[in-house]
Amino acid sequence: MASRQAFTDSDTADEAVRATCDDATLSKRFATSKGYWKDLYIQYFARSVGERKAPEINRGYYARVKGVNHLLDAFIRKTECDCQVINVGAGLDTTFWRLKEENLLPRKYFEVDFPTVVARKIHNIKLPTVFVSECVLVYMSPTHSSNLVRWASEMFHTAMFISYEQVNMSDRFGQVMIENLQHRHCTLAGVQVCQSLDSQKERFLKAGWEHADALDMMTVYGMLPQEDVERIERLEFLDEKELLQQLLQHYSICWATKDKLNLGNHTFNKQYTYTFKSV
């Protein structure tokens, strides 16, 4: 009986995590419908715009998409597309088609997720590789996420791992986020690693990555091209700017690199703005 209950609880938890895929897709669909960024393909995965999202949510997704894309595109350009992308927990992400449209398609592109979401499987190859993980590692225990990033470090010698997820989760705002997710049967098993930017970096450095750095999304938002930021800020009136600041301060982008082929990937870690100047 106990084992059956454990299986049921595990299945419920998995279903709750899978539901976050739809949440992200609908949020991106709404933001693109308001003009925050262009995505010609997301309409095929979320056919309706859905319920209205708050301006701070739209701006948060704008910062997330722009921040991850800048690092991803910079890596691909650095390798002249002679690389592969492994999107961990890809869900209904449309990055593959965006890269194809912009002539930035890598040699290989893999997506990994639950079998019901994505059927592909990763093959073990050693071309230059960039891993992308958006709000995935946080649902894994620190041991499991460390094993994953250690495996990636050991198997891929010229690589980048881009991780977007929560940070600064030990304060009251972070605790409220955790409680809200728990009410939806979503347990952040890896929240321990999300205590600070340093703890995010340490996960990769302890797993064998040569360099690692991290920025909270409020910092990233401030680094985005101001002309475009001013454009999206005119789309909707934001009443509580402090709420946006709190939200962005509790998400981060962390990136780690290994560079056996001496492509210069370590320069990404010196200064995040490098990528904006070089793309």
UniProtKB/TrEMBL annotation:
Catalysis: reaction(s): [phosphatase 2A protein]-C-terminal L-leucine + S-adenosyl-L-methionine = [phosphatase 2A protein]-C-terminal L-leucine methyl ester + S-adenosyl-L-homocysteine
GO molecular function per UniProt: protein C-terminal leucine carboxyl O-methyltransferase activity
Gene Ontology biological process: methylation
Organism of origin: Periophthalmus magnuspinnatus
Source species, domain of life: Eukaryota
Keywords noted in UniProt: Methyltransferase, S-adenosyl-L-methionine, Transferase
Name of one Pfam family that matches: LCM
Annotated binding of S-adenosyl-L-methionine, by residue: R64, G89, E134
EC number, UniProt record: 2.1.1.233
UniProt protein name: Leucine carboxyl methyltransferase 1
